[in-house]
């Protein structure tokens, strides 16, 4: 990049556009990922300067230009990186290391369109440079902001550290062809923010694995479980096939009988207050399931688990109260005298002869006019 003034000029324009947006709106509200660690602050690697004890180095044809002035000033600033040849690597490592279980994903921004990253691989490194895991970037990792000339990358740690453990840093590696015009910034590991969903909503967590394993890549509140993604998926970092999701929430119910209905492509499980009421955990076309339960008045917890293997993806869950059935007719208690007094107007009887029959089993009284 240092020898290509046109690439540097294009990057300067892209970052200048970002500066202009910042001046009007403040920091961009890019989507955040979430995982098992809740409420932990991000582990920032580079944000205007290297932080948290991280050091950076370039090798194999990559170059670094670390800028430590205000990146939102008139002159664009950030890490300017060029990968001139295959194998070019940018490495960011810290001496102390960190537990991968504390974070859900690696995030960073870069000043280029998504196509520039087709050959970029992200590697998580442990002690003595051992590679814990790697992930080749694809469309599922990237959200583009074309008007600003940059994109946002989210790589779930479930893909980079499937076995957990302690990591020392991250490497960005060019696996083929030249990558130019990349301005890297806001490089950090992020954890889950507790969605804090109110009663009546679901805390939704989406996993980039088919078995609900590893940290979640997306966490958000959802008012309903009513998704028809087609050949798409729930968002960046999850993909369109081979993902899973879990929704948990508390809902206030009036006392009564309720029918719960679920339809999914592929697998689904529904639990009410910890007990499974629907189990359709299998590959399938959209398939309906129902379960009926009697609930006491108050809040009840619903948990829905879902996975998508391949092809079309959809999941829908709803419930409705059953119509109340008529109750039994109340029988009055006998009067203090031990019997009943019945007063009932009878039609005229020409003969004046009435026959009264008492059935103590029913009990009932029959009055018949005799000829």
What does this structure look like?
- The protein is mostly beta strands.
- It has 2 domains: 5-190, Jelly Rolls (Sandwich); 202-321, Sandwich (Jelly Rolls).
- 7% of the residues lie in helices and 46% in strands.
- It is built from 2 helices and 24 strands.
- The chain has helices at residues 5-25, 157-160, and strands at residues 43-46, 54-59, 62-63, 79-83, 89-99, 105-110, 120-125, 131-136, 142-145, 150-156, 166-174, 179-190, 202-207, 218-222, 225-230, 243-253, 256-265, 267-272, 275-280, 287-295, 298-308, 313-321, 353-359, 364-370.
- Strand 23 (353-359) and strand 24 (364-370) form a beta hairpin.
- The longest helix has 21 residues, at 5-25.
- The radius of gyration is 33 Å and the shape is rod-shaped.
- The N and C termini lie far apart (120 Å).
- Residues 1-39 and 69-76 have low confidence and may be disordered.
List the helices and strands and how they pair.
Blueprint: H1 5-25, E1 43-46, E2 54-59, E3 62-63, E4 79-83, E5 89-99, E6 105-110, E7 120-125, E8 131-136, E9 142-145, E10 150-156, H2 157-160, E11 166-174, E12 179-190, E13 202-207, E14 218-222, E15 225-230, E16 243-253, E17 256-265, E18 267-272, E19 275-280, E20 287-295, E21 298-308, E22 313-321, E23 353-359, E24 364-370
Antiparallel strand pairs: 1-12, 2-5, 3-4, 4-12, 5-11, 6-10, 6-12, 7-8, 7-11, 9-10, 13-14, 13-16, 15-22, 16-21, 17-20, 17-22, 18-19, 18-21, 23-24
């Amino acid at each position: 990049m240092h020898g290509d003034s046109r690439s540097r000029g294009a990057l300067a324009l892209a970052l200048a556009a970002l500066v202009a947006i910042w001046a009007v709106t403040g920091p961009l509200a890019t989507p955040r990922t979430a995982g098992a660690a809740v409420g932990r602050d991000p582990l920032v690697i580079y944000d205007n300067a290297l932080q948290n004890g991280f050091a950076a180095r370039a090798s194999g044809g990559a170059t670094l230009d670390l800028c430590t002035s205000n990146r939102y000033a008139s002159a664009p600033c950030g890490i300017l990186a060029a990968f001139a040849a295959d194998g070019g690597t940018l490495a960011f490592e810290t001496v102390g290391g960190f537990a991968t279980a504390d974070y859900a994903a690696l995030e960073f921004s870069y000043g280029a369109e998504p196509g520039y990253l087709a050959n970029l691989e992200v590697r998580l490194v442990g002690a003595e440079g051992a590679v814990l895991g790697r992930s080749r970037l694809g469309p599922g990792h990237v959200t583009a902001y074309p008007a600003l000339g940059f994109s946002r990358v989210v790589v779930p740690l479930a893909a980079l550290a499937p076995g957990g453990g302690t990591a020392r840093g991250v490497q960005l590696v060019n696996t083929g062809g030249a990558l130019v015009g990349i301005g890297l910034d806001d490089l950090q590991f992020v954890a889950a923010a507790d969605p804090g969903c109110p009663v009546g909503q679901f805390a939704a967590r989406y996993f980039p694995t088919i078995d609900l394993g590893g940290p979640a890549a997306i966490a958000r509140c959802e008012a309903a479980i009513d998704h028809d993604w087609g050949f798409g998926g729930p968002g960046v970092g999850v993909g369109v096939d081979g993902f899973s999701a879990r929704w948990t929430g508390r809902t206030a119910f009036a006392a009564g009988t309720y029918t719960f209905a679920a339809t999914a492509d592929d697998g689904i499980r529904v639990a009410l207050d910890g007990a499974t009421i629907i189990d359709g955990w299998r590959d399938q076309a959209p398939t309906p399931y129902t379960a009926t339960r009697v609930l006491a008045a108050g809040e009840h917890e619903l948990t829905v688990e879902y996975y998508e293997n391949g092809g079309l993806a959809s999941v829908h869950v709803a419930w409705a109260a059953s119509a109340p059935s008529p109750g039994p007719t109340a029988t009055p208690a006998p009067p203090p005298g031990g019997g009943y007094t019945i007063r009932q107007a009878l039609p005229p009887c020409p003969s004046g002869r009435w026959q009264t029959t008492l059935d103590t089993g029913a009990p009932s009284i029959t009055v018949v006019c005799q000829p």
